[in-house]
Amino acid sequence: MSTPRPAGGRGEPAGAPSAEETGHPDVILCPGGPMLLRGDHVVTDEDGRRHRTTRPVSAVCRCGKSAIKPWCDGTHKVLPPQARP
Ligand code: FES
């Protein structure tokens, strides 16, 4: 059992396990693609609407072209390399 840690400067809630403790990062930036979020999160879009994640891993669009923003729909794959995040 891990010892809860106080909230620190890394944006982690108090008691949240670290990446070292879980064995994987909570956030992964995919080169040329989305940002993967592991676990429960709330994503606020550019209009201020809040979207709660409902999957173990959620992909957040970083290219701005998804039809289902804030989530990635795979559109980044058909963009020219210079238009990808
Ligand atoms: S990053 Fe995948 S559609 Fe934008």
UniProtKB/TrEMBL annotation:
Residues of the Iron-binding zinc finger CDGSH type domain: 38-82
InterPro entries: FeS-contain_CDGSH-typ, MitoNEET_CISD
GO CC annotations on file: cytoplasm
Chain residue ranges for the region called Disordered: 1-27
Ranges of Low complexity composition bias in the record: 1-20
Record GO terms (molecular function): 2 iron, 2 sulfur cluster binding; metal ion binding
Protein name: Iron-binding zinc finger CDGSH type domain-containing protein
